[in-house]
Amino acid sequence: QVQLVESGGGLVQPGGSLRLSCAVSGSTSSTFVRNWYWYRQAPGKERELVAGISRAGVTSNYTDSIKGRFIISRDNAKKMQWLQMNSLKPEDTAVYYCNARGLVVSTGASFDYWGQGTQVTVSS
Fold first, then answer.
1. d(CA 117, CA 110)
2. What are the DSSP calls for 21-51, one per residue?
3. Model confidence over 46-74: pLDDT tens digits?
4. 51: which of 92, 93, 99, 109 lies 20 to 30 Å off by Cα?
5. Which residues have CB under 8 Å from 27's CB, separation 6+?
């Protein structure tokens, strides 16, 4: 069984940095990740797409507020992705979710896996 395992959240002061990690665990050899995404959901708000990166390394920032501050990266061989978050602001406070989409190698079926979420709190 395949899971996404997230880590790296926590409490940080405004202006600080955090690095979120997400790894495919379980039957990793059965997965071919095509695209990685980070979503976040703040209290009382809908989940929003923050950033994405393709297998080829093409990145997309979907939320204007994070441009110039967050950097998404991935390692295809390790089947991992990261979100480096700099100059954090209180409005970045949310639960951050990792998402991976791709194909099951043996069947060609598509998959859409989600991490359990990690809390990021930006507060003085």
1. 22
2. EEEEESSGGGEEEEEEEEEEE-TTS--EEEE
3. 999 999 999 999 998 888 999 999 999 99
4. 109
5. 1, 2
